[in-house]
Write a structure and sequence with these properties.
Blueprint: H1 2-9, H2 12-16, H3 26-36, H4 42-57
């Protein structure tokens, strides 16, 4: 519940909505990561971007369009 509150109170849904299927969108991952954990190291940032790309390419959230 607290994660949902944090997400909504920081308008992260608006940042996430910047994401488009036809673009790379690593900047969206960086923007959200900055709000959630500004101290994230470079390797963790790369891992997050790779996970984002893998999930995006697998079309896991296709049903939410």
């Amino acid at each position: 519940m607290s994660a949902a509150w944090f997400w909504l109170s920081n308008n992260l849904h608006k940042i996430a909505d910047e994401s488009k299927n036809d673009s790379n969108n690593e900047n969206v991952v960086d923007k959200i990561t900055y709000v959630i954990n500004r101290g994230t190291d470079d390797q963790s940032k790369r891992d997050r971007k790779e996970n984002y790309t893998r999930i995006r390419n697998a079309e896991i959230f296709q049903i939410f369009k």
